[in-house]
Design brief:
Rossmann fold; alpha/beta; globular; single chain; 12 helices; 299 residues; 3 domains; 10 strands; two-stranded antiparallel sheet
Length: 299
């Protein structure tokens, strides 16, 4: 039989801090998870490696909002239906574990939605604009794999926070130097958390050449070394070191494009100077590509 004192103490601790709820549910948070749960920022971007525990921290945040803010609405947004179902399952798992310590009453439950007896709702939806526009007054908006959520969808969900003054958290593994998440990561105004999977060694050019240690207790250093060898440096950098990389099929680097667009007036034919060299450096590779295509292929 559970002690009412133990239940009351666990309930009070969980109410004061989402991290305490996670621990009461029998889960030990990683440092980056503790940072987010303790801070509970209004607007947060979390950039982390694969299998870092993104779904778990979303589940804890959603459970805390629903339990201790009666009548609240938490919306969990994912790129696909499968991911939405997994996010809902993880949230339900957190609640089930917490129920073993503190009683929680559910009023209604489905694969993608959970409603508590206090009137709070947790709704998990796939990333389709047509399925989300009917929601308003969102108290917590969590976007999973945010780098893969289209810009139009992101801008469609932001107004849901206007009246409620709700919180937003977007979590993702990098997906190239593009999209709303990449742009937001370059700007101020967000609470940003970065969680790489490993300590690595690099060559003089900054390329990853080895793995020294794992920074995630659930991933072995041996596995990470194998991933670097099998997947290659470019893929490893994005998937495990949370680095934004240019697309593998990108003809010009971002630096080349920026240099061309930032060339001085002399490069545009007004006078002469070093700007001519900048334009030449950016244009010559394109001329080679065009000449190769015209000749029936590239060397």
């Amino acid at each position: 039989m559970r002690s009412p004192w133990i239940e009351m103490t666990a309930d009070l601790r969980a109410a004061l801090c989402p991290e305490a709820l996670m621990r009461s549910a029998g889960m030990d948070p990683d440092p980056w998870q503790s940072e987010y749960l303790a801070a509970a920022p209004q607007s947060a971007l979390i950039l982390c490696h694969r299998q870092a525990g993104k779904s778990t921290v979303v589940g804890v945040a959603a459970a805390h909002m629903a339990l201790y803010n009666a009548g609240s609405l938490t919306l969990l947004l994912s790129p696909s239906l499968r991911q939405s179902a997994e996010l809902a399952r993880k949230t339900r798992e957190v609640l089930d574990r917490f129920v073993s310590v503190v009683p929680v009453e559910s009023a209604r439950e489905s694969v993608l939605q959970l409603e508590l007896a206090n009137g709070s709702r947790i709704v998990s939806l796939p990333g389709k604009e047509s399925t989300i526009r009917g929601f308003s007054g969102v108290d917590l908006l969590a976007i999973d794999e945010a780098a893969r959520v289209p810009d139009a969808l992101y801008y469609a969900v932001r107004p849901m926070l206007a009246v409620s003054g709700g919180r937003i958290v977007a979590m993702t593994t990098p997906f190239g130097k593009r999209g709303w998440f990449y742009d937001a990561w370059q700007r101020d105004g967000w609470h940003k958390i970065a969680a790489p999977a490993a300590e690595v060694t690099r060559d003089e050019a900054g390329k990853i050449v080895g793995v020294l240690a794992s920074l995630c207790p659930r991933i072995s250093v041996e596995f990470l070394r194998q991933e670097l060898e099998e997947s290659g440096e470019w893929w490893f950098a994005q998937e495990y070191m949370r680095e934004f990389r240019e697309s593998v099929d990108q003809i010009f680097s971002d630096a080349d494009v920026f240099a061309a667009l930032s060339a001085p007036a002399s490069a545009l034919g007004v006078g002469s100077g070093a700007g001519d060299d900048v334009i030449s450096a950016a244009v010559e590779p394109l001329e080679e590509v065009v000449a190769g295509l015209a000749g029936g292929g590239l060397a």
